[in-house]
Amino acid sequence: MSAPLLQIRELKVYYHVEAGAVKAVDNVSLSLDAGVKMGLVGESGSGKSTMALAMMRMIKLPGRIESGQMILDGTDLVGLTDEEMRQTRLRKLAMIPQGAMNSLNPVMRIDRQLLDGPLDHGVIMSKEERKARIGELLEMVDLAPKVGKMYPHELSGGMKQRVTVAQSISMEPDLIIADEPTSALDVVIQRQVMATINRLLEEFGLSLILIGHDMGLMAQSVDRLAVMYAGRMMEIGETREMFRKPLHPYTQLLIESLPVLENKGKFHGIPGITPSLLNPPSGCVFHTRCPKAWDLCREKTPQFVEVQSGRWVACHLHTA
Ligand code: ATP
Ligand code: SF4
Predict the structure, then answer these.
(1) Does any ligand 2 atom lie closer than 6 A to the CB of residue 234?
(2) What is the pTM for the complete model shown?
(3) Of the chain's two ends, which shows fewer C-beta atoms within 10 Å, N or C?
(4) CATH fold label, 6-92+173-319
(5) C-alpha 170 – ligand 2 centre gap (Å)
(6) Three-state DSSP class for 295?
(7) Is 137 exposed, middle or buried (0-12, 13-18, 19+ CB in 10 A)?
């Protein structure tokens, strides 16, 4: 069997604030095969964006990667110099940011922004080649050629997000990380942009890590699901299996909280509040909200173990 495209091993990312270390990602491991789409879900503050930024090596102070490995296609990203990582971004992995508004340059035309990445990576193109590549990239994301001559303010939210998708694939990376790529858009546009992303992934055989809260969108979009809570990984498995039979009580609650027709689309939050990551609960971090917690859960941290092939869970109910 070939090695996975991405292997994250025991990754720790902390933010060092005055009161101490915020353990935003604490001992997280996951692996992703080539061509697979994985969703990363969890409530606000669970560490999803920190994971994405760590993979891009874009964590800023007071944040720091403390330890762990992120092996992408045989190379540990943690050990790369800043220059090596700059060369790796876009070529090997690229990010579609949360909300295109902040990532596009308001005073630069779209055609220039589409070529920014390749030119920055030293790709040499003649005038004709540039023109052709811009047209190709716009077509890939279902935008008309005339969009190249426009400025971001002339585009709708959905069109802007399509431009960021085109930017992300401009160097044909192996892995795309998308942090809530459609959350700022209305539902219909959301689904359309997601459909474009999916088509491109399939066309080029790319892998995806899709970050979000929307379990409904995840159910439709990804092959595998990774559930985070309070900086820790709780469960990973095939999306269909996770919905059919969630093993971790937190995954169960996330799925039960999905609005369904019978409850008139009402969203039930998960009772209780997320813990402080400065001083996380002892034992299982979820014990303060878990309806199934018992003494052991307060005392001992459950290991993250493979309970069936490709199914990982950190819960004493399944590993004690
Ligand atoms: P959301 O869904 O709201 O984007 P998230 O799951 O992506 O949340 P993160 O943004 O990764 O979570 O945050 C994880 C933890 O790290 C939170 O407790 C957050 O307050 C903390 N954190 C994030 N950025 C910083 C920072 N620059 N300085 C200090 N703490 C931070
Ligand atoms: Fe709940 Fe205990 Fe499992 Fe944690 S280890 S999820 S507290 S049952």
Answers:
(1) no
(2) 0.93
(3) N
(4) Rossmann fold (3.40.50)
(5) 44
(6) helix
(7) buried
**What is the chain's pLDDT, residue by residue, as a tens digit (320 residues)?**
678 999 999 999 999 999 999 999 999 999 999 999 999 999 889 999 999 999 999 999 999 999 999 999 999 999 999 999 999 999 999 999 877 667 899 999 999 999 998 988 888 888 999 999 999 999 999 999 999 999 999 999 899 999 999 999 999 999 999 988 777 778 888 888 889 999 999 999 999 999 988 888 888 889 999 999 999 999 999 999 999 999 999 999 998 877 655 554 445 678 888 899 999 999 999 999 999 999 999 999 999 999 999 999 999 999 86
Q: Are 274 and 46 in contact (CB under 8 A)?
A: yes
Q: Where in the chain is the domain with CATH 3.40.50.300?
A: 6-92+173-319
DSSP one-letter string for 70-120: EEETTEEGGGS-HHHHHHHBTTTEEEE-S-GGGTS-TTS-HHHHHHHHHHH
Best mutation site among 48, 65, 66 for ligand 1 pocket (most ligand atoms within 8 Å of CB): 48
